[in-house]
Design a protein that fits this description.
The chain has an eight-stranded parallel β-sheet with strand order 8-7-6-3-2-1-10-9. A two-stranded antiparallel sheet has the order 4-5. It has a single domain, classed as TIM Barrel (Alpha-Beta Barrel), CATH 3.20.20. A hairpin with a 7-residue loop joins strand 4 and strand 5. It is α/β, with parallel strands linked by helices.
Length: 346
């Protein structure tokens, strides 16, 4: 069994595999259940996740780790088996979301800072005993609308990257690999070039803070956004443009010691998230440049939306939901090696 931080991080970034983000808060999963007409009870939340964890062979072949919510890491399946054990038996690594969400940043222009450092050392020790071997902390960086370049502020970027670094240091102290997730949101009307500028500034600040907090980069995983246009931008960057800007940004900001980069889907459609990941890996393979990182996925909605729609809370639809999950996991596993094509979706 792998125990070192570096071994765990490399296992998380295994070729052709990615992470399943099943760490939705109770409020978030309720919104998703409302769409399919399912009550957000503890039992239904457990069942919706358990059926994914029991999807064979997709879990063993394509999912290197699963990010869990506090409720889920403590739950047992209907047959009494701890969900953590089901994940481990499938050959995946259990992980845990540890932040307490984004709150208003004082004296800012509506910006956010992620909280959750208070009591984190004790919580990490408990999560380790429950089986977690990696953790996740998400920071959110917004981009101003209508050409407003005062958002994000340097204050917001500093507050969030400092918190990410403190979290990462505490994780490594506890023997847990930290996923550092500085998400530059795609909610605005900005173009891909503005996303590039903000992401570059954020990642430069992040790695400066991680250095100051004495975090071993070999025992970390980066979970960033891709360099994409905002949802409200009239011009959408193509997968090839996304790949070019994303690789350029990382070349200028991310140290080679980082073993793996697992992208968040960030509100992209299922197909867009797969197509953009595929383009990044294709460009990596075709380029004369040397990119030292494994590029894969850490998707929530982009892996779960189709299975939820197929399941809809009905026992008779469990197999259909698992089939939908296996398909999306396979498509993204192919994209993680640059081998996906749109025709594979039919």
């Amino acid at each position: 069994m792998t125990t070192s931080l570096q071994d765990i991080a490399h296992a998380m970034a295994a070729p052709g595999k990615g992470l399943l983000a099943a760490d939705e808060s109770s409020g978030t999963i309720k919104k998703r259940f409302d769409v399919i007409g399912v009550d957000s009870t503890q039992e239904n939340r457990r069942d919706s996740r358990e059926r994914l964890f029991r999807t064979a062979p997709a879990m063993a072949d394509l999912i290197s780790g699963v990010i869990l919510f506090d409720e889920t890491i403590r739950q047992k399946a209907a047959d009494g088996t701890p969900l953590v054990k089901i994940i481990q038996d499938a050959g995946s690594i259990p992980g845990i979301k540890v932040d307490m969400g984004a709150k208003d940043l004082p004296r800012s222009n509506g910006e956010k800072v992620t909280e959750g450092l208070d009591g984190l050392r004790a919580r990490l020790a408990e999560y380790f005993e429950l089986g977690a071997r990696f953790a996740k902390w998400r920071a959110v960086i917004d981009i101003g609308r209508g050409g407003n370049r005062s958002v994000p502020s340097a204050y917001c970027i500093h507050a969030n990257t400092h918190a990410l670094a403190r979290y990462a240091a505490l994780c490594q102290e506890a023997g847990i690999v930290p996923i550092v997730e500085p998400e530059v949101l795609m909610d605005g009307d900005h173009d891909a070039e503005r996303c590039y500028q903000v992401t570059q500034a954020t990642l430069k600040a992040l790695y400066s803070e991680l250095y100051e907090q004495r975090v071993s980069l070999e025992g970390t995983i980066l979970k960033p956004n891709m360099i994409v246009s905002g949802k409200l931008c009239p011009t959408k960057a193509s997968p090839e443009e996304v790949a070019e800007r994303t690789l350029k940004c990382f070349t200028h900001t991310v140290p080679a010691a980082v073993p793996g980069i697992v992208f968040l889907s960030g509100g992209q459609s299922d197909i867009d998230a797969t197509a953009n990941l595929n383009a990044i890996n294709q460009l990596k393979s075709a380029s004369s440049e040397v990119y030292p990182w494994a590029f894969s996925f850490s998707y929530g909605r982009a892996l779960q939306t189709a299975p939820l729609d197929a399941w809809r809370g009905k026992a008779a639809n469990v197999t259909a939901g698992q089939k939908a999950f296996a398909h999306r996991a396979r498509m993204n596993g192919l994209a993680a090696t640059g081998a996906w094509t749109p025709e594979m979706e039919t």
